[in-house]
Amino acid sequence: MFHMGWFLGTGFGVYGWNQRWTGNAAKDMARPDLFIDVATSLERAGFDYMMLEDSCVIPDVFRGSMEFALKSGGIRQDPMPLVPILADATKHLGIIATASTSFYPPYLAARLMQTLDNLSDGRVGMNLVTSSPHAAAQNYGYEQHFPHDQRYEMADEWVACVRALWDTWEPDAVVMDQETGVFADYTKVHPANFEGKYYKSRGPLNTMPGPQRHPVICQAGGSNAGKDFGAKNADTIIASLAEDPGIENMKDYRDDVVARMIGFGRKPSEAKIMFLGHPIMADTDREAKEIAAGMAAATARNIEGQLAGMSYYSGLDFSTFDLDAPLPDVTGEVNGHLSLYQDFAKNAAGKTLREALVQRAQTLSSVDLIGTPESVAVQMGEIMDYVGGDGFLIRALPTRKNVTEMCDGLAPQLRKRGLIRSEYEFDTFKENLLAY
Ligand SMILES: Cc1cc2nc3c(=O)[nH]c(=O)nc-3n(C[C@H](O)[C@H](O)[C@H](O)COP(=O)(O)O)c2cc1C
Hints:
This protein has 16 helices and 16 strands. The protein has helices spanning about 25-30, 35-45, 65-70, 80-90, 105-120, 135-140, 150-165, 225-235, 245-265, 285-300, 305-315, 340-350, 355-360, 375-385, 400-415, 430-435; strands at about 5-10, 10-15, 50, 75, 95-100, 125-130, 175, 180-185, 195, 200, 215-220, 235-240, 270-275, 280, 370, 390-395. The chain has two domains: about 5-285 and about 370-435, TIM Barrel; about 285-360, no CATH class. The termini are close together. Helix 7 (about 150-165) packs parallel to helix 8. It is of the alpha/beta class. Bound molecules: flavin mononucleotide.
């Protein structure tokens, strides 16, 4: 059996507001309705979690302007307030929202997550990112963002601080004894007195621990520093090999992360490694292949969108590069999503930038998943058998049409083959995630 999640790639943002099949997306963009529908559908399908991406900036690296981002709806609401709304609409689904270790003070994050854990009966997680680009850091009062590897060094200490705060209440500290009138045993609530190189917090939390005590930590860094951070701290690691896809690369990625986990004294079963996948399905395999080819062609035509995306990920203005010349060597200048850029640059070698972007458009996910729901279910099972991974993180535009395809077309086929759960065994997100 493997696990399933859904990645909402622009968080509590705007999804296909001017596209076919997106219903009321334009009108409802800042409302929870679509997200509630997604969450309840994922639960019906037995998914482990729904993951809300986040960023805290209107991108302006591309052409040195916000024009492209604003024209295309590149905005986000804060995902955290959405979490209890989604939890209220579901009973078992895990809900992960993204938080930046670079900008959230540890005390604020530790307290927020315990509050959300209580509100959701133990079903929250946080996706820890170190954030890019410089403009994000400037929103929080810094001149420039911290260098890539230093961000992960800080993030590592940040997690230690947050965990120390979560541990300030012993498991049996809450007494709630009506006879004696004691709410909590003060001898079992301690300061954290955390003092590191970057963070300092006194504690204890003034918030009751939630059912999970340590909510799920999710992580997506693909660089050496990012992989180490995930291997040391995460309960679920999400990997996109879209820039460098294929099952051999998936296997290598997993083996690498597992070796790092063992190096940190952890068991491989303590973190579930999920690969980003975009199943493209139809009533026949041939039809599905045609749809996939149409999507790749549309992405390839959208050179402007791709350049804007690469500018955001790299922090470099791709509009200044000659499309009909090789990608210039800018190694050392990238301070954004480093591993994504490195994978792109590796595959761009020997090509013009335009050719590299066209090639990039052919792959939507870590591996091709194209066919009928039946054949995609078989492919997913075979891939997981080979890779030894723990599951897939669906990345598709969350239209009700796509959600129905995944939840009412694909999931029953996976379940029929014994590949995903048929019911939730435990009460909390973490227990279900680590159950197998
Ligand atoms: C599935 C997935 C989800 C991600 N979600 C976010 C996010 O919500 N916010 C963000 O700033 N970065 C996000 N990232 C970027 C990662 O945090 C990271 O910067 C990127 O994978 C490159 O890794 P590296 O920084 O270790 O090179 C995501 C990456 C992946 C693959």
